[in-house]
Fold each of these.
Amino acid sequence: MRKYNVAVVGATGAVGEEMLDVLAEVNFPIANLVPLASANSAGKTIQFQGEEFQVQELTENSFEENEIEIALFSAGGSISAKYAPFAVEAGAVVIDNTSHFRMESDIPLVVPEVNPEDIEKWRNRGIIANPNCSTIQMVQVLKPLDRRYSIQRVDVSTYQATSGAGKKAMEELAQQMKDFFSFKLDESPHNAFPHQIALNVIPQIDRFMESDFTKEEEKMVYETQKILHKNIEVASTCVRVPVLRGHSESVTITFEKDIDVDEVREILENSPNIVVVDKPSESLYPMPIVANGKNETFVGRIRKDLYRNNILHLWIVADNLRVGAATNAVRIAQKWIELDNE
Ligand code: A2P
């Protein structure tokens, strides 16, 4: 198989580092790897498949100079807005992990297990958008159930890890925990979140919108509809919890048809990259510590509503840096390569 020149933009960040790990693990066909970050990181070395690579400063010329063919972006929305066009201009396909392009109608928003057919639309603008971390793990579960019972409405509450806000946010939680044990938590600063995150939960992720939902909550609504190509009703409450890695979701799904819980389990067990962990009598269910470092989405607590036969409740957990970001981006790149080799 042909090999590709691959750039990782934001290679020193929480998601960027994970992208490098996933690329190495799947033995991605790389001719030349170019890790890009801010001027602060230029010259740092990173290890990739036993070799050392120097981090380069991201510039407008990075893509042309290095003849980049696949550019994975995860350095924030403003960086994607400014530099993705230079990557496209240089002939690369951009796989963008930020929210910047996601809702543009001619940009495909892809979860490979759900809507791989949309990757074809990369030709429109040269860009494929990677959805929000909480959306990815949820739609992987919704899609196979929608096929069988047809979804009308989804109500979801999330329990999101600090790593979703980047490395500094993870460090902030760790620092606050240290300060707690030194009896200094009251003086511990918080910059990544609107409140102290250690020993707390914060029912706000991103800013509040006119709808009284937050931007993160609106992302879950509109991204889910775009990926499923269906205007189902979605209501979301997104909550930050003092976990480093792994987003959890309590999901209630209302279907057009009545459900059979055994069949639901069977459908999910046979769905790609989903693992059912559901033995309540043994206290077995998904948790962040189960999902950490994994490329699968874990589902449990599967149960029918007490009142209505068309309502299902379940609990979904996935590693937000992997399934919710890096793994999904790399899976998109692998599918794109399949198209390129057709
Ligand atoms: P750097 O480490 O040099 O600041 P995280 O989401 O974990 O905070 O990571 C953000 C990533 O985006 C890091 O790799 C960071 O690089 C990168 N980044 C931030 N600002 C820029 C910029 N102006 N140009 C290129 N990369 C940037």
Amino acid sequence: MLSVLSPGEVKLPDGRSVEFANLDIAATAPCLTTVAETVADLLPFYGSVHRGAGALAQRCTREYDQARETVAEVVGCGPGDHVVFTRNTTDALNLLAHALPLGTTVVTFDAEHHANLLPWRRPVRLPAPSSPDAAVAALDAALTRLTGAGTTARRAGAGAASRGPLLVAVTAAGNVTGELWPVARLAEVAHRHGARIVVDAAQLAPHAPARLPDLGADYLALSGHKMYAPFGAGVLAGRADWLDAAAPYLAGGGASAEVRADFAVRWHTGPARHEAGTPNLLGAVALATACRVLAGEDHAAEQALVARFRVALAALPHVEELRLFDAAAPRVGIVSFTVPGADPDDLGAQLGRRHGIGVRTGLFCAHPLTRRLLADATARIDPAAAPAPAAMRASFGLGTRAEHVDRLVAALAGLA
Ligand code: PMP
């Protein structure tokens, strides 16, 4: 199993020292040891990218270009695709929103993370579905309405004469519930209606292969810091045509091929068009390294920990899991829950102080969804209770141990 850097032990008020249990991996994951070593090896040679003639610049340019190739290979890009390095998933989705042809209609679900909810201008928002099948049916119905006929042969992305292109924007794995969305089926529906699909793979990529061809996606977005690769890089990967036709995301050096005396600009096509400014070399190398090593990882241990936690949670009558789909729906290492009557922020602080556990409390940048799930979960456990203003989330991955999970369960059991 791959190893990650550990923050070590923390001292508890009772005098004991325990290993810090980082159960907030879904927010930002710890650094893979391999990533840290790769970055450390490169640091002495750190220099400019695409801008210098010296040995350092040449090496750094090679490393940056190689990082792009590695990511392209791991996410399964084809010849007509680009990999653009961005700051994170939010940046990647905003870049795509910026690059949409005029008149594009975006269809999404209101269960999305804000990064996939807010960048789109006047999207068609479908209500959060109660099952993967319902998601597929709702998308099919919405696209049938939007195209006027479900099976009209519209060339993907080209748009009908009367209407602009369509883009479906969905998450692959929810950051609140960890549930997997039926992305390949949604992609099939989208393509049948002539729409393209972008997948928010921020929470899938750390836990399972996120490949364009397997997902059936036209674009995917991910974040390095959630894939055990700090240093501030993300990726938008996918079809080149809209990206090459759009105005540069940022205007400046690197994106411009030539600026003439009258200041007329000829812009690059390709990823450089949207990567103006000095690139984040270490971020790109870290992200590519993480993509490469995670591609060979099996996530059985993490799945076992999620199952262990969920079974234990289900046995606590005062705690209720948040979920959109059936309890048996497949998921990644994320479990959110509520303890009606307890203040979530206070509880989170206590878990940290008394038990050396880091969880997340809040609405997880998915406010509409989390509020709805809090109301549903509270009603299941105590119909008379008011939903808590925020939820709690534990997330698992590389570096999580069974002892961390058991410590959290024991702490929650102690609240009864
Ligand atoms: N989508 C999902 C599903 C996420 O969980 C997150 C991060 N919480 C994002 C998008 C945004 O990622 P970032 O903050 O790295 O841009």
